[in-house]
Amino acid sequence: MSSRSDEPVFPRHFVWGASTAAYQIEGAWNEDGKGPGIWDTFCHRKGRIFEDQTGDVACNSYHLWEKDLKCILQLRLTHYRLSFSWSRLLPNGTTDHINEKGVAYYNRVIDDLLANHVTPMITLYHFDFPQSLQDRGGWKSADIADIFDSYARFCFQTFGDRVKLWLTINEPQICCTMGYEEGIFAPGLQELGTTAYVVGHNMLRAHAKAWHSYNTIFRKQQGGLLSLALNSDWAEPLNPSNPDDVSAAKRHRTFELGWFACPVFSTGDYPVAMRARIEEISKAVGYDGAPRLPRFSEDEPPVLGSADFFALNYYTSRKVRAAGTSHRELNMKTDLELERIIDPSWPVCGVKWLAVVPEGLRKLLKHIKVEYNNPAIYITENGFSQIGPVEMEDIQRGRFYWDTLCQVSKAICEDGVDIRGYFAWSLLDNFEWSDGFSVRFGLFHVDFSNEEFPRTMYHSGKEYAAIISKNCQHS
Ligand code: GAL
């Protein structure tokens, strides 16, 4: 860990933010004309979420926005990243019906942020897909790309006079694998081996259409920037002198980040190694159906170049070891053939999957610089959770923000990575998907047992605020 004398340094216009997502904070799941989303359906079925909790009320941010705004101002954030609930704006997912109360809610949030000199960054889709579109096939169906594009155009038209930073889709890799292969996220499907690739493909097509719509119709007048938020761990070989482990670590990077980053930032198609690998495994298991990894059509807006910056969500690192399988089953595990290991020297705090490895972020940033043509990068999520009895004096989490930002500073100053901003996950403790409210990622504690849902700044929030006030040079 770095010492306090090792002060991080940031460029003059570095962006200081925190992130949230609609389903995780808003509540009001069926109020004021909102249509149901797949997370409503998923959580209302028993046995899916920790203690069968739901986001029905969550932090009640739909009714308590002023409290969230106070938190944002207390931290002195320059930027706030939130997501729109698609079905709050368009209850059945299409522009056939617009919910004016939903529009009014987000107008208010955006206007309040701007009145307080905070810049909004909006995610159009952060896991909470409209149920009525799911019932029509959702991301599996090819026509979703046009439906998403209409939703995006509606948002640019309605809010784009004030919103200048857009993200289309949050973490497509997580949506595809957890939602369609492993089934632990909504919509809870376990269609092994092919669906995740089809869903990912339609997400990329949808994203590219929305970027081109923005570029041709809105950019000139609105002058904003648009991307999609990609998640990635940092992966390195368990034994760097074992070539099998080296290729397994590469495969991990290819299938996690490369899957979405390569088409958008590098070649316009999936990584060559990914296509080759999927074909090889398909053959080995005797699969002779349609190619599992679809091809992009030349008749559609190109996916290459459809991003104005690189948005990265980073949480953790893994050591990777090659793990042979018998090649009998068609699923993503077989495609990957690897084991992910947490190095014993890495502290694991809060949730089990989250080994705290700030230096992994620096390595990943450097990798992105080299692999994806030195893009401007915003770190759109990064954080560290606590579980069990609440610790308001969360010294370790405070330290985590310091250590992480030291690594970001080194990536900028020593590695020459073009990093434009950092968004902590999350502003508030909130509904952490399958883990419900048992896992707390907030810079602010939320007391979910008190009907006023009071928000109180943790020690880690104070640490983050101190780093911001020391380094923020915005006027
Ligand atoms: C991300 C996700 C967030 C948040 C975070 C912490 O994958 O985008 O919504 O839950 O993980 O687990």
Automatic annotation (TrEMBL):
The active site is at E381. It comes from the Eukaryota. One of its GO terms (cellular component) is cytosol. One of its GO terms (biological process) is glycosylceramide catabolic process. Pfam families: Glyco_hydro_1. Keywords: Glycosidase, Hydrolase. The keyword Hydrolase applies. One of its GO terms (molecular function) is glycosylceramidase activity. InterPro entries: GH, GH_1_N_CS, Glyco_hydro_1, Glyco_hydro_1_AS. Belongs to the glycosyl hydrolase 1 family. This is Beta-glucosidase. The gene is GBA3.
